[in-house]
Design a protein that fits this description.
This protein is mainly α. It has eleven helices and two strands. The relative contact order is 0.10.
């Protein structure tokens, strides 16, 4: 018997797979608008009807959505993959920031290692841009009073490292926790910046991490990521100890005054 012929995939299925790959690797992010049909068809070298069929399939799967006024977007709900009630509660309770930092330590050491091994020229250019934005947020007096802006720049730099690691599970795990991560950074920075020379020290840590990745020194990058987060963790623990001492002193004062401790 002659061997059975291999079934050729339909063009629309091939386009669907390519678009899914762009979403998985982070080239198309949640909430971002897709290029026009004409531009995408030219980029893929396909007909617009085939492209339209692929977009309809992805829309049916909940990956793409159309908005009033025109345009097709990556579904914003994809960024809520880690938005379960437990993580939402974590974001509201400061006492769990140490848990977040320990998770970051575990994840970001690995991503820094792989980024140093795998970063492309485009990745390195993006890392340098994000570092420049971070440096501006730390050194520009007009931005230093905006803790959220500093936190966004800090988190964006670390997210660029995850992107440069080229591991989609690591990337989407860190990206999915971005809002929780950002909130923890705001809290950490607010305390750390009370220390003398904290901004310059943090910038030195970020610069050393960037240089290790750009130069392909994977083990150094892993170590520097761990060292940086260790410094942040130490500062947070110091803040918590100070709060505990203040609470203890307040309870003693209340007892001396004869009022019930809170």
């Amino acid at each position: 018997m002659p061997p059975s012929s291999l079934r050729q995939p339909r063009l629309a299925d091939v386009i669907t797979q390519r678009l899914e790959t762009l979403i998985l690797e982070g080239s198309l992010k949640a909430g971002h608008r897709l290029p026009s049909e004409r531009e995408l068809a030219e980029r893929f070298g396909v007909s617009r009807p085939s492209l339209r069929e692929a977009i309809q399939k992805l829309s049916a799967r909940g990956l793409l959505t159309s908005r009033q006024g025109g345009g097709t977007y990556v579904n914003e709900r994809l960024s809520d993959s880690y938005g379960d009630p437990i993580l939402e509660m974590l974001s509201r309770h400061d006492e769990f920031y140490l848990d977040v930092l320990e998770f970051r330590d575990a994840m970001e050491g690995i991503t820094a290692y792989h980024a140093a091994m795998r970063a492309t020229p485009a990745d390195k250019e993006m890392l340098q841009q994000r570092f420049q934005a971070l440096r501006d947020s730390y050194t520009d007096p007009g931005q230093q009073s905006d803790a959220l802006r500093e936190a966004k720049a800090d988190a964006a730099f670390h997210l660029a490292i995850a992107e440069a690691a080229h591991n989609v599970l690591m990337l989407h795990t860190i990206r999915g926790l971005f809002q929780l991560l950002e909130k923890s950074i705001v809290a950490n920075l607010a305390h750390l910046f009370e220390r003398p020379n904290a901004r310059s020290l943090l910038m030195d840590q970020h610069r050393a991490l960037l240089e290790a990745i750009l130069e392909g020194r994977a083990e150094d990058a892993r170590h520097l990521a761990h060292e940086h987060l260790g410094y942040v963790k130490e500062g947070l623990m110091e803040m918590q100890r100070a709060e505990f001492r203040a609470q203890r002193a307040e309870r003693r004062t209340q007892l001396l005054k004869g009022t019930p401790p809170r």
